[in-house]
Specification:
By secondary structure, the protein is an alpha/beta fold. Helix content is 16%, strand content 19%. Strands 1-2-3-5-7-9-11-12-13 form a 9-stranded mixed β-sheet, with no helix packed on it. A 4-stranded mixed β-sheet has the order 17-23-22-19, with no helix packed on it. It is elongated. This is Amphoterin-induced protein 1.
Length: 493
């Protein structure tokens, strides 16, 4: 029994010596958990306002929040920390003199979620600058001198939710950041206020969902005044979007080197904004979105008859899809009316009303079916063409007559005939008539060497004047000439 007790005592002595040596080593090792210029509280390191020209070395690997703001840092190189800080989720670098950041500077902090680079001297954001920060959610870059933003500067940042770029010198709107289905699918806030934006992609901004427009801040920019800009912000005001309601007085535009509030553009005579209804034609397929100001809300649709629209109903033309949109299959006239969407979220609830107008005709019918207006227009054109054909292409009555027998006279082409009230040519038949009634009518014959066109005499030809006869007598004209000398224009001699 004595040897066993001695062996047990030896093991206890060795264990005590090991624990003692561990404590001595722990107490005597260099203090790397808190650099001399920093204040430490658990996993938080505050090195602020120490006029540090460089980042302290030997940062502990368990650091979760590192505050290096209000110092004299000018460059952030790839080797700014030799230790890989996998637990770091917040890095504060504001109020320094940073003018250069290496594209590999964020490799040691792959799990960073909050990065503050505000109030520095950055001028450009190069491509793939933040590509290593795939878990980043908030990025602050306001109050710098940024003039150019590369289109690939924010690639591979699928978790980014808030991006602050205000108080810079940006003149191009980065549409690639907010366009639907773009590289930042979770972005809910983009602050571009107090920059040098003059023109905006207005049609593209109109198409953005409300949850993006609600966090798109554009105030204090020298925007160009026009009615389309007024309609854009009036719509946002109608929807009570925070980006407009919080900064109504700071939303202005430039016209003739003067500032004007975007909601007071009376000099442009812009039409008042009115919420437009959805329009559809008979038999169309239509999808109406419940455009809420927040993502992930629970949505319920109610019909104009105050009946809830269910998700899936057999033989129903109106259903609700998985994303909360209202879907119409072969819309009918009776489907028209005001539909209401009730959206419920964690922070607030929202109610939206959408009016649907259904026209009682199809937009694209059969090929033999024409629109009423088009049919009327074609009928008018055909009527005008037929009238013109009748007026100008119908042959004249005198043109249809055959070729007249040429006159037997070879002399002058002008023949005369006496019109009388008596049917015969007896010179004695008119003895009892009024002596004053003596009228001569001359007709132009189309043939003859002395005539021109239309029976007119050529120069040098004269009319044969009949000799004077006794009172009460009439000179009988040649019967043969009476039947052959008719012309278009009678000449009274």
């Amino acid at each position: 029994m004595q040897p066993q007790c001695d062996l047990r005592g030896l093991w206890l002595l060795l264990l005590s010596l090991f624990l003692l040596l561990f404590e001595v080593a722990r107490a005597g090792r260099p203090v790397v958990s808190c650099p001399a210029a920093c204040l430490c509280a658990s996993n938080i390191l505050s090195c602020s306002k120490q006029q540090l020209p460089n980042v302290p070395h030997s940062l502990p690997s368990y650091t979760a929040l590192l505050d290096l703001s209000h110092n004299n840092l000018s460059r952030l190189r790839a080797e700014w920390t030799p230790t890989r800080l996998t637990h770091l989720h917040s890095l504060l670098l504001s109020h320094n003199h940073l003018n250069f950041i290496s594209s590999e500077a964020f490799s040691p902090v792959p799990n960073l979620r909050y990065l503050d680079l505000s109030s520095n001297q950055l001028r450009t954001l190069d491509e793939f600058l933040f590509s290593e920060l795939q878990a980043l959610e908030v990025l602050l870059l306001y109050n710098n001198h940024i003039m150019a933003v590369d289109r690939c500067a924010f690639d591979d940042m699928a978790q980014l939710q808030k991006l602050y770029l205000s108080q810079n010198q940006i003149s191009r709107f980065p549409l690639e950041l907010v366009k639907e289905g773009a590289k930042l699918p979770k972005l809910t806030l983009l602050d571009l206020s107090s920059n040098k934006l003059k023109n905006l992609p207005l049609p593209d901004l109109q198409k953005l969902p409300a949850w993006i427009k609600n966090g798109l801040y554009l105030h204090n920019n020298p925007l160009h005044c026009d009615c389309e800009l007024y309609q854009l912000f009036s719509h946002w005001q109608y929807r009570q979007l925070s980006s407009v309601m919080d900064f109504q007085e700071d939303l202005y535009c430039m016209s003739s080197k003067k500032l004007h509030n975007v909601f007071n553009l009376s000099f442009l005579n812009c039409s008042e904004y009115k919420e437009r209804a959805w329009e559809a034609h008979l038999g169309e397929t239509l999808t109406i979105k419940c455009d809420t100001k927040q993502q992930g809300m629970t949505k319920v649709w109610v019909t104009p008859n105050n009946k809830q629209v269910l998700d899936e109903v057999a033989n129903s033309t109106v259903t609700v899809s998985k994303d909360g949109s209202l879907h119409f299959q072969k819309v009918q006239v009776e489907d028209g009316g005001v539909y209401t969407c009730y959206a419920m979220g964690e922070s607030f609830n929202e109610t939206l009303s959408v009016e649907l107008k259904v026209y009682n005709f199809t937009l694209h019918g059969h090929h033999d079916t024409l629109n009423t207006a088009y049919t009327t227009l074609v009928g008018c054109i055909l009527s005008v063409v037929l009238v013109l054909i009748y007026l100008y292409l119908t042959p004249c009555r005198c043109w249809c007559r055959g070729v007249e027998k040429p006159s037997s006279h070879q002399g002058d082409s002008l023949s005369s005939s006496m019109l009388s009230t008596t049917p015969n040519h007896d010179p004695m038949a008119g003895g009892d008539k009024d002596d004053g009634f003596d009228r001569r009518v001359a007709f132009l014959e189309p043939a003859g060497p002395g005539q021109g066109q239309n029976g007119k005499l050529k120069p040098g030809n004269t009319l044969p004047v009949p000799e004077a006869t006794g009172k009460g007598q009439r000179r009988m004209s040649d019967p043969e000439s009476v039947s052959s000398v008719f012309s278009d224009t009678p000449i009274v001699v």
